[in-house]
TrEMBL record, chain A:
The lineage of its organism: Eukaryota, Metazoa, Chordata, Craniata, Vertebrata. Residues 184-198 have a biased composition (Low complexity). One of its GO terms (molecular function) is growth factor activity. This is Ciliary neurotrophic factor. Residues 136-145 have a biased composition (Acidic residues).
């Protein structure tokens, strides 16, 4: 974490973290609901085995305990930027494939995308507070590039399932990361070990 | 011995023969006559095969076999009659064999080599479609064409009952030309070399479920195949949530056959292939209906700037998004075509077409299509007889005196080509509602006025107005907002 905080910066960080934790919790609940609806509307088995999705950030991480606050934020930011692109693609595919047929699912997808965008902005705020600033969006897009096009519609459906599942895991992890971050520096404290992380 | 002559083009013939003696022999002296008058044509050849002209009626051939040292040791004379000559067309040449995987259709193109034959002859083409490395014949057709003394490229389509990706498909072709004026024997040409469209099961990294994301009509029978990589095993194949019995097509290709498919959900019906590893591969089938003929097609203009056509779409196709039913309005006189932005969830569909300056009559064709089929509906309409003005706006009432008022309103649109009929509704607390009709020349984006007399002094009135075409009534506009006015005291 950055050097010792001034009281106001620490207060601001704790407030941002608290709001972030609430955002992550709400997002996770909405994503889990969306997952069930998505699986049902796409004719998928919710427990279907999904192959690795290229460009999908994985929530599981080794050495979660040892991560600095900035590392946590940077990883979270990269992940949610990736999710924003993946969800935007899912929404576009939804419009292309279903048009107005399943407006409810479309709205639910758009709502989650909105939350992911808000959470991304929130992370950028936190990083600005860490006075190291968020990496520019372009750098990351160059690194990640556009989400790959799936081979067919079934693969597209499965990929969507995989994205939502991983997003739910990330929302869980983000809550934990932000709780770690909210602790007064230096970041000690008995945060749950990575095993418990998603 | 066994002198046989074959012609491929009715002009030249290739003759070959056998030599019975076992002695080693050198060159052969070959002589032939073209007709009774001219001397024989002779030449030497090492082959037991020559190409000479097809005789007009018959030709005498003398073959002298010489020893290595050049001394003749056997001579034989043959008379070849034209009717002994065998006509076999040149083996057809396949120009292209093109797969359309989305429709499981093969397109074959070949040249008919018509320039080699007189005009108007009947040609028959036998085409065989074969599958698997074992070349099992799955289709054989005879296709007929007329030769035109020019080389024409012929084309033939074949739709497979299972996806072309599932296994390799081969095609070969041969032909028979019915040369009526040729008295000799006639036979089929040789088969062309086979052309192949390899199946995905021959591609080392080929895998997947096919056909990929296709659209079929309700009631169709569809065959799906799962092509898997070497060493993978399939647990089962399901259509929707129902497992189907698998048919093995090849070592890396299994199929299921779905009969009489029901309409699918908006997101389609998943066809899933489960492997022992737990991994899934799949495709999506969209099952819907061809579009119905649009009913009650009707067109009107609200303002002589746009023509608004409406219709009842009939049964919903069950297809959505980019597969949904699309509509376009084509106007024959002007040749103008407009694609319609239609919201599939609405019961009534609407499409706007721009009014064309100086054109009153419109010959509309409403085209309707989706991946399963297409249809159309047509309408001939004179828009001056289909005027449905917009709601009159900005109605104002002013008083001239205690028993008459002056009304003024505005209608968005240009009606200069017609006369308008407007109806004013007059209501007041204690007398019966009255309707007052007034007609006036239409204007362009203009206001309209009317005078009402014989009103009661010092009385509160409610006025509202609606308009339509005067000469060819079609529909009233909606009523304007009500405007209240109290006449002055007498």
């Amino acid at each position: 974490m950055a050097g010792a905080d001034s009281p106001s910066a620490a207060l601001q960080r704790r407030d941002l973290c608290a709001r972030g934790i609430r955002l992550a919790g709400k997002m996770r609940a909405d994503v889990i609901n969306l997952l069930d609806t998505y699986a049902e509307r796409q004719g998928l088995d919710a427990s279907a085995n999904v192959a690795a999705v290229e460009g999908l950030p994985l929530a599981a991480v080794e050495g979660w305990d040892e991560q600095t606050g900035t590392q946590r934020l940077l990883e979270n930011l990269a992940a949610y930027r990736a999710f924003r692109a993946l969800l935007a693609q899912m929404l576009e595919e939804h419009r292309e494939q279903l048009g107005e047929a399943d407006a409810a699912l479309g709205r639910a997808l758009a709502a989650v995308l909105l939350q992911v965008s808000a959470f991304t902005y929130h992370l950028e705020e936190l990083l600005r507070l860490e006075s190291c600033g968020a990496p520019s969006e372009e750098e990351q897009e160059e690194e990640d590039g556009l989400p790959p096009q799936p081979h067919g519609l079934f693969e597209q459906k499965l990929r969507g399932l995989g994205v939502l599942r991983e997003l739910a895991q990330w929302a869980l992890r983000s809550g934990r990361d932000l709780r770690q971050l909210a602790k007064p520096s230096p970041g000690t404290g008995s945060a749950p070990s990575p095993a418990e992380s998603p | 011995q066994n002198l046989k002559c074959v012609t491929h083009n009715l002009h030249k013939m290739i003759c070959n023969w056998d030599v019975s003696s076992r002695r080693r022999h050198g060159q052969t002296d070959f002589c032939y006559t073209t007709n009774d008058l001219s001397p024989p044509v002779c030449f030497k050849t090492k082959e037991k095969r020559v190409e000479i002209p097809v005789p007009e009626s018959s030709s005498v051939v003398t073959i002298t076999t010489n020893s290595i040292s050049g001394t003749p040791f056997a001579t034989k004379e043959f008379e070849i009659h034209k009717q002994d000559v065998l006509f076999i067309p040149v083996t057809p040449r396949i120009l292209s064999l093109t797969p359309d995987f989305s429709t499981s259709t093969l397109n074959l193109k070949w040249s008919d080599n018509g320039s080699a034959f007189p005009y108007g002859l009947d040609a028959f083409w036998q085409i065989q479609v074969l599958r698997k490395e074992t070349m099992e014949k799955v289709a054989e057709v005879t296709y007929h064409s007329k030769l035109t003394h020019e080389d024409i490229i012929l084309s033939w389509n074949w739709t497979s009952d299972l996806p072309l990706e599932c296994m390799s498909h081969y095609v070969k072709i041969r032909c028979y030309v019915n040369v009526t004026q040729f008295v000799g024997l006639k036979d089929w040409s040789d088969w062309s070399p086979v052309e192949v469209i390899p199946g995905k099961d021959t591609d080392p990294s080929g895998s997947g479920v096919f056909p990929l994301d296709t659209v079929v009509a309700v009631g169709s029978d569809v065959t799906f195949c799962c092509v898997h990589e070497e060493g993978q095993n399939i647990t089962n194949m399901t259509y929707g949530s129902k497992p189907y019995p698998m048919i093995q097509l090849s070592s890396r290709s299994n199929a299921i056959r779905v009969l009489n498919a029901n309409a699918s959900d908006a997101s389609g019906t998943n066809v899933v292939c489960r492997y022992n590893s737990g991994m899934l591969e799949g495709t999506v089938l969209f099952v819907g209906y061809a579009p119905d003929i649009p009913q009650n097609l009707s067109c009107e203009t609200p303002n002589f700037r746009i023509i608004k056509c409406t219709w009842k779409p009939g049964r919903h196709s069950g297809l959505y998004g980019k597969r949904k039913t699309k509509y376009s309005l084509f106007e024959r006189t002007s040749g103008k075509n407009v694609s319609c932005e239609v919201h599939e969830m609405n019961r009534e569909h609407v499409c706007g077409f721009p009014v064309i300056p100086d054109q009153k009559t419109y010959d509309f064709i409403l085209g309707v299509s989706n991946p399963i089929g297409q249809t159309e509906s047509s309408l001939l309409v004179d828009i001056t007889q289909r005027v449905h003005p917009k709601t009159p706006e900005k109605l104002t009432v002013s008083g001239n005196n205690s028993t008459s008022v002056h009304l003024r309103w505005f209608i968005n649109g240009s009606f200069a080509e017609i006369r308008l009929l407007c109806q004013i509704e007059i209501s007041s607390g204690h007398s019966e509602q009255k309707l007052h009709n007034v007609s006036m020349p239409g204007g362009k984006l203009s206001a309209y006025t009317a005078q009402l007399n014989a009103l009661h002094p010092y009385t509160k009135y409610q006025f509202r107005v609606r308009c339509s075409a005067a000469d060819h009534f079609w529909r009233w506009s909606d009523w304007s907002r009500i405007e209240e006015y109290t006449t002055s005291e007498a």
